[in-house]
Write a structure and sequence with these properties.
The chain has 416 residues and is of the alpha/beta class. It folds into two domains: 53 residues; 355 residues, Alpha-Beta Barrel (TIM Barrel), CATH 3.20.20. It is built from 15 helices and eight strands. Strands 1-2-3-4-5-6-7-8 form an eight-stranded parallel barrel, surrounded by five helices. Strand 1, helix 3 and strand 2 form a beta-alpha-beta unit.
Length: 416
């Protein structure tokens, strides 16, 4: 046989071989895609079944994450959980004396929720630096600004992963972090060193690594404060900030980290109590349909969980009726409202939401959109109300110590 014929046969055989491999690879890829789609379909069906089985009280309760007072699961906390069936609890410094007390409180809250079919979001603000709620047994973590100054993606993800381990060990499942605000105004009284940088691209990079580090430990990361709290002159805890930026300015700076987070599959976003007259002259971003439904959901394509900042902050209660604000937030596209202080205000919000649903002011469709997002996220993270046991905080501190020794700029965090 001529040599060229042998070569031709070899080439034909190789084509068939490669074609067969490609076909097999394509089949494997198709099978995997079908399997993922089937799992997603099963989850969707299960969530819908759960929603259909819920009472009106259970549905309304899921729309609220509430704060509680003191170091113990008192009667007010039990009422919020057992009677009003709230969707989650957020803990603050006022709730945490030491590690053992914190574990007892969390386990008691979970036990109270055992009468309900849906586990609680158990949330905290653990940003690092001056915004840290974990007890003193844990080694402290740096402010985001310090992390941004070092500007090392490996540091960001390692640090957030250890924080995630701390939270998970304590029985928590949600962290209102990282801050994705761009620190564009050095006179900002509330953000400052809570931001990674004045550079939106750096905020994006460090923020995504932090988000991923938390998620690697099964902690839900809620990025904040959409659409950007970095250029304000008023602390929204004390008053209502007014920011005169138009949509073009927002897209050129403030929205960059949030768009980046959405591209990287962010699952939850907290909105800010800031008034943007060029976007919505009447409502703060936290209950503005222009901001939430139009910019966040329609334009940026976010279909995850939207949670308001605390409705008991002065930005809201000094300028709006808290009950009307809660209803408007849900109508505008938020899924949950955060009510961190005052049992009477928490009850008033829950009652207002129930009345709005029963009157049709909040449509069944709008209600069930939010319930779907809430329940789906809880199921995706396999949340349970199982109690937690003792925490080996020494081992977690050793991980942080090893990390700080790798970065000289963080050595100040080492205990003497």
């Amino acid at each position: 046989m001529p040599k060229r014929n042998i070569i031709l046969l070899f080439i034909i055989g190789l084509i068939f071989l490669l074609g067969g491999c490609a076909l097999l690879s394509g089949q494997n890829g198709s099978n995997q895609q079908l399997e993922e789609e089937d799992q997603e379909s099963q989850l969707n069906d299960y969530v819908r079944t759960q929603i259909n089985a819920m009472s009106i009280e259970e549905k309304i309760g899921q729309l609220v994450i509430a704060g509680v007072d003191g170091y113990e699961n008192d009667l007010q906390a039990q009422t919020l959980i057992e009677e009003y069936k709230i969707g989650g609890i957020i803990l603050f410094e006022r709730n945490i004396k030491d590690l053992n007390q914190m574990l007892e409180l969390i386990n008691s809250l979970k036990e109270s929720n055992s009468v309900n079919p849906i586990p609680l979001f158990l949330a905290i603000d653990e940003e690092g630096g001056r915004v840290s709620r974990l007890p003193d047994e844990f080694l402290k973590t740096p402010a985001s600004q310090k992390v941004g100054e070092i500007n090392d993606s490996e540091l960001s993800v390692r640090l957030a992963s250890i924080v995630g381990e701390q939270l998970k060990a304590c029985g928590l499942n949600m962290n209102f972090a990282p801050v994705l605000d761009v620190n564009s105004n050095p006179n900002n009284p509330v953000i400052g060193d809570r931001s990674f940088s004045h550079d939106p691209d750096q905020v994006c990079t460090q923020g995504i690594q932090t988000m991923n580090g938390l998620r690697s430990q099964d902690i839900i990361s809620v990025v904040k404060h959409f659409p950007g709290h970095g250029d304000t002159l008023v602390d929204s805890h004390l008053g209502l900030p007014v920011v005169d930026h138009d949509i073009n300015r927002l897209y050129s700076l403030e929205l960059i980290p949030f768009a980046c987070a959405i591209e990287n599959k962010a699952e939850a976003i907290m909105t800010a109590h800031i008034l943007l007259p060029n976007i919505d002259p009447h409502n703060p971003a936290s209950f503005s349909s222009n901001t939430i439904s139009k910019i966040l959901r329609q334009d940026l394509g976010f279909d995850g969980l939207v949670i308001t900042d605390d409705l008991t902050m002065a930005a809201v209660i000094d300028n709006y009726d808290i009950q009307e604000a809660a209803v408007q937030a849900i109508k505008a596209g938020s899924d949950q409202v955060l009510v961190c202080h005052d049992f009477q205000k928490e009850k008033a919000v829950l009652q207002a939401l129930k009345q709005a649903v029963e009157s049709g002011d909040i449509s069944v469709e709008r209600l069930e959109q939010s319930l779907y997002r809430i329940l789906k996220l809880k199921m995706e993270y396999n949340l349970t109300d199982e109690p937690v046991s003792t925490v080996n905080y020494q081992a977690l501190n050793q991980k942080l110590e090893a990390l700080y020794k790798d970065y000289q700029d963080l050595s100040y965090l080492l205990k003497p």
